[in-house]
Description:
Layout: H1 19-37, H2 43-53, H3 73-76, E1 104-109, E2 115-118, H4 119-124, E3 129-136, E4 141-151, H5 152-159, E5 167-172, H6 181-184, E6 193-197, H7 198-202, E7 207-212, E8 215-216, E9 226-228, E10 241-247, H8 254-258, E11 282-285, E12 291-293, H9 301-304
Parallel strand pairs: 1-10, 4-11
Antiparallel strand pairs: 1-2, 3-4, 4-7, 5-6, 5-10, 7-8, 7-9, 11-12
Helix pairs in contact: 1-2
Amino acid sequence: MPVIRRKGWEIPESQATPEALFLDRRAMLGLLGAAGASGLLPAPALAQEDAFAKRFPAQRNEAFKLDRPLTPEDVNGNYNNFYEYGTEKGIASAAQKLKTKPWTVTIDGLVEKPIKLDFEELVAKMPIEERLYRHRCVEAWSMTIPWTGFPIAKLIEFAKPTSGAKYLRMETFLDKDMAFGQRRLFMYPWPYVEGLTMAEAANDLAFLAVGAYGKPIAKQHGAPIRLAVPWKYGFKSIKSIVRFEFTAERPKGMWEQLQSSEYGFWANVNPEVPHPRWSQSHERVLHTGDRVPTLLYNGYGEWVAGLYKDMKGENLFM
């Protein structure tokens, strides 16, 4: 008899996203179609919306599962780090000022041909899927999210970087009228920047999210496109990306610029390496309040540990 050995972060299908969530989404799209047919919505506007919206819910990639239940959408949607809209967690209302249409994405730097295109045009060129990811914040809380999006590896294929590209630098928007946090926190080095090595970006886990919970991503989560790398601390989670630059120089992210002694380039999760001001040995599961042991690489070492072998002199954690 064959024996199935689950990986440490896998769960049974019974604990995955409830089917009703996806059925409700399909029902809503059906109602939109009916409204368009009856003349309640302008046909061109409806067609433009459907070009992107009809891709949700996306098929789940069963290779990516969890060891705990999903964080409820309402909890996730009201507990966010998005400093462009304030330093507190309850920024969901303020983040609605984010305007995502139109949204232009630039791909440049060390690539065969720099390009600037509409966000939905870029996503139309990508195969999207759903993945269940666990995330851990450096503040020692964690959540689990069903992201929809595409691997960064697909963006790399599309961009065709040259051999000189060693890093992928990502940049968010800069609009002080749209994001009051960029005015209020005037000492911060806006726009927000984060980076990955090319090896990290090409890893199977590295993901660009354009949706969550079976629908397009909410504004407070970093619409319309954000980074999701589950083996790193949450400050490596750039939101509302407008530029992907392939470069030979290591990017310096915003938090590293602000406090390099606490927030480094690598941001890899290690429970044995404390933050300078608090322990990282445990984490609080956001929607239950349970405290559980933190896992090396957030439990994804099987996928990513090989990226960091023999890196002498590098402060890999934090």
